[in-house]
Specification:
The complex is a heterotrimer of chains A (247), B (411) and C (163).
Chain A lengths: L10 H6 L2 H12 L21 E6 L8 H10 L14 E8 L5 E7 L7 H5 L5 E3 L5 E3 L9 H5 L6 E2 L18 E2 L5 H4 L6 H8 L5 E5 L6 H8 L2 E2 L11 E4 L2
Parallel strand pairs in A: 1-10
Antiparallel strand pairs in A: 1-8, 2-3, 4-5, 6-7, 9-10
Chain B lengths: L6 E2 L6 H27 L14 H16 L1 H7 L10 H21 L7 H6 L6 H24 L7 H24 L12 H28 L6 H31 L4 H10 L2 H23 L7 H28 L8 E5 L13 H24 L3 E2 L10 H10 L1
Antiparallel strand pairs in B: 1-3
Helix pairs in contact in B: 1-13, 2-4, 2-7, 2-8, 2-12, 2-13, 3-4, 3-7, 4-6, 4-13, 6-7, 7-8, 8-9, 8-12, 9-11, 9-12, 10-11, 11-12
Chain C lengths: L1 H30 L13 H5 L7 H22 L8 H8 L1 E2 L7 E2 L1 H10 L17 H4 L5 H15 L5
Antiparallel strand pairs in C: 1-2
């Protein structure tokens, strides 16, 4: 679905919104809209009718790092210390079943919980969930107390331990605040799919499926009713919007 | 005016006091430098990382905040439970409580990733967060104890002092419950996620607070060369310290036993108590042996337990044990990996399946210790400015008459 | 009692010293003929070409911070995109070549001239990049990753992945 016809013809505004937005449209034009996602019209807030989600097929997930590298490139996070002070928005976890020895590999990132504990515990309300279910950190408010990191059962969040330079214009990051996977909210708003999903699909593995969990016609919803999916730490009742299959 | 009162300001002190205060000032300066160093470079210069997100500053901060509410104990016993022997020390106990809280908050705030955004912490609230509630509990504590002090120190307000005392007592119980709940509400971490942490913190606060009070009183005695506590009072404090320490041991035992019974928590328990390297070493060595058993033996000793030296030694050990306890709770609870995939062995370039290796940096420790110095220096300054210190007792005089006369006058 | 008197004396002395230093500073400031020169924010080519900013200049001067703050809430928390007052747009239009940034266009010269004059410290750029998103430098088409991506995309299309 093209978005250009939806855009307003406000010339003055368009002239001002030169660089980055134009860049975005280029990518749209190159057309990798696997799922029937379209850019939200200008000036419209994210809708609670939509619930973005991911389904990760661990059967198709190989021992590669493509999703992680794609996220790094897209969002510009990179560690320089080589230890646990480095940020990690998405990571590949290798699993070995203690009894059977069966090995698996799967990506873990922010699971964008329906009831996110990080949002509950944040003292200043910086940790927040957008209407469409994306869990974000409002770094204008984040004071860097790290309580959300204590509360997250998935270790999905990173604290920025050092100065950051050369951020992407669409992905501000700064020392002393907490950050995590944004589900590529900037791309979603633009009608594109998250960078990890795109990279995984392009590599031919197709282990990640992105879409609207509220839309029964979406590919992800159809798949979820067909197969049995796993929610990590389902016992906590957080209802993560990122689920796993074949796990 | 001063003659009618049973209290005095700290005036006739020797060079020892000045040296002590100078040392505290120096430590505070070092603490500020450490905080600047951490803020300037970013937290990678500390031992903290993305798994152990709270480190040494939090150990000290939580320790001081818990101690603060406990320091109010002496005042509470006198106002709420009508024990007149404690009345003389009520003012001192209240000002010490406020100072300890200030010291703890100082450390907590200076460790924030964005210290410059303190104003946001004060203006933007998420009321579902126990942390946000704690900000109110802390500021409320300052206000209520301030009013309590006013009712105690202003003659015309004396008749309200009992009510202020009640309010302060209730508030401090809520505050410590709040502090314990910061950890107790963390369902995701196996070492926390228990309501027991709230009463455990309250019991601990009694120990830390009373130990701090005893040490400050004894320091004043040595500095001024006077006697502030009679034998009877020493005896009472000794009894209280024993009861509180045993209570903490009780809650600690129950907490671990509950976890040990549940199969799913065997991993975390064996980590905390046996296999976790530094953590069990601190638990058994510092918290249990040095911080509980040894002081209990000293306090229970028929002669040593009754001396002021014995009391001060036991108090120091109890405080060291308290720091150890906080270390085990805060660091131990985080360094055990998150159990995201039960029954699986997880590995990654990240925190999965790792027992985090936390080595506190010097800067963190200095910042933490400076919190104690803030509390001590603030208390000392307050003692110099206003009449917090009770007048010395003559050794042969039973102190019973004095407080009774005073309350009669106040009522 | 003597002790109290001493404290009072100290307090009075301190206050007097403080007042004197204040007076001295005020005098020094008043005596100087030169005043801090008014700022002249560097105008980028883009900004010069544009007939108007997103709002009249006088309005922007006075209210840009409110507009920015309002929009940051709208965009980040509500997900509203495409509104005119984004920091990214400010940077893209107002950035000028900056030697400190290796010749890239940054907003430093434009933003800091007035903020320095008004003694305002902003922390926008502790997280946001101050560099303009110039197409030549950051174009998605030229980076090796996107080249690879384009290649893979083509391969994927061939296998009729895109239903």
């Amino acid at each position: 679905m093209s978005t250009s016809n939806k855009q307003t013809a406000d010339l003055a505004r368009r002239r001002f919104l030169s660089g980055a937005v134009a860049l975005g449209s280029v990518s749209i034009a190159s057309g990798f809209t696997l799922y029937t996602a379209s850019a939200r019209p200008k000036g419209e807030p994210a809708s609670s009718k939509i619930r973005w989600g991911l389904l990760i097929d661990t059967g198709k997930c190989e021992d590669c790092n493509i999703c992680v590298e794609a996220c790094k490139t897209e969002n510009g996070w990179e560690g320089h210390r080589g230890n646990l002070t480095d940020p990690q928005w998405i990571r590949k976890v290798g699993l070995t079943d203690k009894r059977t020895g069966k090995k698996q590999s799967l990506p873990v990132m922010c699971l964008h919980c329906e009831y996110p504990p990080c949002v509950d515990v944040c003292p200043v309300g910086a940790s927040m969930k957008r209407a469409d279910g994306i869990v974000l950190v409002d770094r204008h408010l984040c004071i860097g107390c790290r309580y959300c990191m204590m509360a997250c059962p998935y270790g999905a969040r990173s604290f920025v331990h050092e100065k950051v330079t050369n951020q992407k214009p669409y992905m501000p990051r700064g020392q002393g605040t907490v950050e995590s996977c944004t589900l590529c909210a900037h791309r979603i708003d633009d009608g594109r799919i998250p960078a990890c999903v795109e990279a995984c699909t392009k590599s031919g593995r197709e282990a990640m499926l992105f879409g609207d969990l509220n839309d029964p016609q979406s590919a992800i919803s159809k798949r979820i009713v067909q197969v049995s999916t796993t929610k990590l730490r389902a016992d906590l009742g957080l209802e993560p919007n990122v689920r796993y299959v074949n796990f | 005016m001063g003659l009618r009162d049973n209290y005095h300001r700290l005036v006739d002190h020797g060079p020892f006091f000045f040296a002590l205060m100078l040392a505290h000032a120096l430590v505070i300066l070092l603490g500020l430098t450490a905080a600047y160093y951490m803020e300037h470079n970013g937290h990678y210069v500390t031992g903290m990382n993305n798994q152990v997100v709270w480190g040494m500053p939090h150990v000290f901060a939580v320790f001081l905040i818990v101690a603060a509410s406990g320091a109010l104990n002496v005042a509470s016993i006198s106002s709420v439970f009508n024990r007149l022997a404690y009345k003389r020390f009520a003012r001192l106990s209240a000002i010490l409580a406020v100072s300890l809280l200030a010291g703890g908050l100082f450390v907590l705030l200076l460790d924030l990733g964005r210290v410059d955004r303190l104003i946001i912490a004060m203006t933007s609230y998420n009321f579902k967060s126990i942390f946000a509630w704690n900000i109110y509990l802390y500021t409320g504590f300052f206000a209520i104890v301030g009013i309590y002090l006013w009712t105690m120190m202003e003659k015309r307000m004396n008749r309200y002092s009992k009510y202020a005392g009640y309010a302060a007592f209730v508030w401090r119980l809520i505050l410590t419950t709040g502090t314990g709940s910061i950890f107790g509400f963390l369902a995701a971490r196996e070492a926390y996620d228990t309501a027991l942490l709230a009463p455990l913190f309250i019991a601990s606060s009694f120990v830390y607070g009373l130990a701090f009070t005893v040490l400050v009183l004894l320091t004043m005695c040595w500095t001024l060369g006077i006697t502030l506590m009679d034998k009877e009072f020493v005896q009472k404090v000794r009894g209280l310290l024993i009861i509180f320490t045993v209570t903490v041991l009780y809650f600690t035992t129950v907490q671990h036993l509950t976890n040990i019974y549940a199969t799913q928590h065997h991993g975390v328990e064996s980590y905390l108590l046996l296999t976790g390297g530094v953590i069990p070493a601190v638990f058994w060595g510092v918290q249990i042996v040095i911080g509980s058993i040894l002081p209990l033996l000293i306090l229970a000793h028929p002669t040593l337990g009754l001396t002021r030296h014995g009391l001060s030694l036991a108090s120091v050990l109890l405080l060291i044990g308290g720091l150890g306890q906080m270390y085990v709770i805060i660091i131990g609870g985080q360094s055990y990996p998150l159990n995201i995939f039960p029954g699986m062995e997880a590995t990654s370039s990240w925190i999965d399946g790792r027992f985090a290796h936390y080595v506190p940096s010097l800067a963190e420790i200095v910042l933490g210790v400076s919190g104690i110095s803030i509390a001590m220096l603030a208390t000392a300054m307050a003692l110099k400015v206003l009449r917090f210190l009770p007048n010395p007792i003559e050794e042969n005089n039973t102190s019973k008459n004095k407080p009774e006369a005073k309350t009669a006058g106040a009522a | 009692m003597t002790d109290l008197r001493q404290t009072k004396t100290y307090a009075v002395l301190t206050a007097a010293l403080f007042m004197m230093s204040l007076l001295f500073m005020a005098g020094a400031a008043g005596a100087g003929e030169e005043r801090v020169p008014l700022p002249h924010p560097a105008m980028s080519e883009k900004a010069q070409k544009a007939e108007n900013c997103v709002a009249p200049v006088s309005e922007m001067r006075r209210y840009h911070m409110q507009y920015l703050k309002h929009q940051r809430v709208e965009t980040l928390r509500k997900g509203v995109r495409g509104n005119p007052y984004s920091l990214k747009s400010c940077v893209n239009c107002h950035a000028v070549k900056d030697k400190a940034a290796g010749g890239a266009r940054t907003a430093d010269a434009f933003c800091s001239s007035c903020h320095k004059y008004a003694a305002v410290t902003i922390d926008c750029f502790s997280c946001h990049t101050n560099k303009a998103a110039d197409r030549k430098k950051t174009s998605a088409v030229q980076s090796p990753v996107s080249q690879l991506a384009a290649h893979l995309e083509k391969a994927a299309k061939d296998r009729s992945l895109l239903k």
